[in-house]
Q: What sequence folds into this?
């Protein structure tokens, strides 16, 4: 016979001690950041020379787009547990009731925009949301949470400038907005191959719905046809019946639709072609090179390479990508623009970099290469440099350090 022991006092005492300990830490953190705000150590208005002349990156964004944000402020968002206490002994999570928000810019009404971000709870989308919120805009996120996570934007829930709506872009959505960042689509192979038909519908029908919304409200819309070309003038070489086809062909059709709406209905569009991106909030199980290698190294496992490891990739840090997206949205340019880091690594070189940075006891093991795996992928970013004044600033090694810290925090908090 099982016996239930009423240990309420003991349990409450433990919870209270845990809460008090966490509250003390939260108070120390809030005091630290309050002091920085009061003393002006977080600067918001600066010029290009101040940002780009630093040996160490202290801020992200571009003054021309009014998107400059202190890097330390962003780190506080994604490297700190905000509303939870994880007890590794009991494997329980307690949620804090009190909520404070980081300071956002106060914009005059004529400058404040209402901005819709589809897929805004995902990896890239959530970083874009952080930046737009800190810039002082009103942000509406729609996400069906297939790959996105509420935790990625949970620190903004309840803020007067923020709305989060569970919605699938395959279905029509009506709202009044000034700009639309259309980022909704699973981008990692395990996710987009899980339901290929759904992936195609998201790329095609989701894009039609967002372009239709932009046409109705006369909003600017940014589209996200990722990765298939190397230069903007390259048309791609895609296997229409291979395992990647649901993703690659869906993106090509989305780009066709975008320009059809621009030419026929005068919709104000922007198109970015995004190359491999990494950083905090990547899904630990998304099957991408960076997250796979970091998680394997943190767990002390061998790093898995598919094929001989001589296939090349270029990796850009997520803050650089967000800079480019905001610059593109606010530029008067209609042609596609590549956003990526032209520095090229073989997969084997990248695995060795992770091992040296995270866990030198790990080894490399090889498995057969997947079908249609690209041999080379490197962007030509001359157009972005000329039109936007944009180029990646984050060294890959520094970005890896930030990403490793994020995954370590997630492991410590019991979130992965």
A:
């Amino acid at each position: 016979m099982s016996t239930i022991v009423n240990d309420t006092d003991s349990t409450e005492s433990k919870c209270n001690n845990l809460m008090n300990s966490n509250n003390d830490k939260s108070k120390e953190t809030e005091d630290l950041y309050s002091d920085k705000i009061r003393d002006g150590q977080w600067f918001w208005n600066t010029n290009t020379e101040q940002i780009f002349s630093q040996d160490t990156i202290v801020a992200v964004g571009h003054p021309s787009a009014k998107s400059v944000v202190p890097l330390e402020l962003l780190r506080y968002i994604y490297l700190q547990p905000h509303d939870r206490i994880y007890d590794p002994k009991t494997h329980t999570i307690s949620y804090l009731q009190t909520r404070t928000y980081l300071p956002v810019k106060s914009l005059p009404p004529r400058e404040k925009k209402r901005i819709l971000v589809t897929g805004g709870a995902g990896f890239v989308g959530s970083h874009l949301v952080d930046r737009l919120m800190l810039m002082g805009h009103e942000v509406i996120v729609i996400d069906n949470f297939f790959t996105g996570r509420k935790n990625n934007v949970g620190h903004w829930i309840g803020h007067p400038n923020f709305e989060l709506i569970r919605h699938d872009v395959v279905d029509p959505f009506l709202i009044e907005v000034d700009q639309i960042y259309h980022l909704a689509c699973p981008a990692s192979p395990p996710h987009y191959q899980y339901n290929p038909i759904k992936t195609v519908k998201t790329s095609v029908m989701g894009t039609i719905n967002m372009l239709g919304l932009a046409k109705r409200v006369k909003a600017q819309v940014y589209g996200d046809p990722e990765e298939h070309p190397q230069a903007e003038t390259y048309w791609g070489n895609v296997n229409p019946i291979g395992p990647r086809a649901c993703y690659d062909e869906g993106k090509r059709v989305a780009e066709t639709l975008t320009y059809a709406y621009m030419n026929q209905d005068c919709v104000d569009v922007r198109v970015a072609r995004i190359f491999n991106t990494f950083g905090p909030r990547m899904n630990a199980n998304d099957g991408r090179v960076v997250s796979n290698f970091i998680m394997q190294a943190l767990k002390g496992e061998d790093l898995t390479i598919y094929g001989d490891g001589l296939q090349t990739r270029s990796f850009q840090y997520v803050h650089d990508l967000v800079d480019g997206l905001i610059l593109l949205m606010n530029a008067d340019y209609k042609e596609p623009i590549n956003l990526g880091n032209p520095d090229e690594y073989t997969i084997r070189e990248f695995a060795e970099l992770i091992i040296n940075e995270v866990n030198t006891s790990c080894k490399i093991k090889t498995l057969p290469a997947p079908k249609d795996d690209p041999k080379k992928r490197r962007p030509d970013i001359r157009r972005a440099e000329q039109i936007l004044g944009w180029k990646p600033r984050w060294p890959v090694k520094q970005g890896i350090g930030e990403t490793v810290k994020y995954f370590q925090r997630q492991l410590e908090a019991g979130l992965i």
Summary: The CA atoms of residues 240 and 249 lie 7 Å apart.
